[in-house]
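Submission sheet (multi-component)
Chains listed below:
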Amino acid sequence: MRREAPQKLTDYAPLAFPAIMLTVFFVIPFGTMIAVSFFQRQQGGFYTPAFVLSNYERFASLFFANVLGFSLTLAVLVAICCVAIGVPFTYLLTRMSRRAQIVWMVALLSVLSLSEVIIGFAWSTLFSRTAGITNLLVALGLMQKAVALSPGFPAVLTAMVYQALPYTILVLYPALVRLDPTLTEAARTLGASPLRAFFTVVVPALRATILATLIMVFIFALGSYLLPQILGRPQHWTLSVLITDQAIYQSNMPFAAAMAVFLVLVTLALVTLTLFAGRKREAAA
Amino acid sequence: MSLFLRRFYFVLVGLFLSAPLIVVAGVSVNARQTLAFPPQGFSLAWYVEIFADTGWRNALFASLTLATLSAALAVAIALPLSWFLWRRIAPWANIFQLLGIAPFTLPPVITALGLLTFWATTGFYGQPWTAVISHAIFFVTLPLVTLSLGFSAIDRSLVEAAATMGAADRTIFRTVVLPLITPYLVSGYAFAFVLSLNEYIVAYMTVGFTMETLPIKIFNALRYGYTPTMASVTVLFVVLAAVIYSLIARYGDLLKLLGANSEEKP
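Outcome: structure written.
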């Protein structure tokens, strides 16, 4: 059946339910949030409709600048680590048999689905003094006595890389699995070592993909809201943690909403950048 | 040498991905309520506890109910939308596709906060059914993506043949289209189900004070210290996710869903 433009009004009928649901429960809540970000906060956790900019003015503080700076730095670090581990891994994965790929993908999807609560709990166990990895080092004679590795920055970074790595691999997978295998074969025939072929042929061919993946993982890491809380100290809190904290524990909805709007703007700017990178990739292909 | 290096690299990544889960699995079989690894003694009591303890059992049922209903609602939103986009030429309708993908692309805290302000403003804050709608909107991306993939894989000549022979749209949908996209429908449902089961922030911000899902229960318990039931629940969740994804791989083409070309027929 050829695709055709809708002719009668009833042709639009299937669209009604999805359109209503998405408008009422996504567009309107989103609008509500933007509206609340301009509202006036009252004592005791309430807020009244108004149009004030005071919630946004609070951004101009050293504290907020620190949180923002830390969130962005952390997300950049997570993105770089994940892409550095993920690109060679995904490349090698796509060269394996379908069976092996499926087994890995089931494992990766299972880890990706894990609740942040569970990831946080699992890593806090692994970093604990009584059940942690340092016990293994003690048993091997590499350490004197077991210590707790969390809370701390390395703990936050490790757990966030853990959370984002399966996502990175899944984002990279479609581009790498469709990569023309004759590219590397040619390089190998001409005498390049596998490692050299990877860095001089595969990586340059995937430059735009890698850039887009970096940005997507960066956004993903910006969204992490529990791991900095469970595995870090208050100075390791990110913007997402701060939003949750203001909304739930400080009952300052207008300020939380203003920060959320800000986070949306940052994210949208980055998505635009990703699309731009994607377009360049298509143009190059 | 290169083969050895490759194996070594895969073992390292595998260890990184499994280490926390191995420790948690070990901790979950401790005989007493201690956070010790290697486990001291062996006991499955903490697995029994999930079902024996009222709090944990209620949380498990709350999570399962929420995931079952919200994944169904997500599919109910995604199916007509992706069918319409496949059947009709209406470029402006793509805006709804975009709206369906947005909640999943933005940091989750934003969707969560938007829904929190919305339910608070409309006065339904805390009602259990608000979590179902919230999760359905949050995860509608997954069936939307799998179904779009499924529709694009349909050979249009099949449908055209049915139309030439006089079948109406409704009949074609039921007898030709639906059987062809069922695998994508099921996997979209399964993805949404597993992720809803594990979701914390949206559930917490919408019904966190009136209802405890398992992730909320774990987080609340975590703030008061450690109980081994968290570990056994974690293992249960990992196993459940692995089983569901294995079933998708067994009965569908998982790699194609993830972006590879179709399976080559031998």
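Remark: The radius of gyration of chain B is 22 Å.
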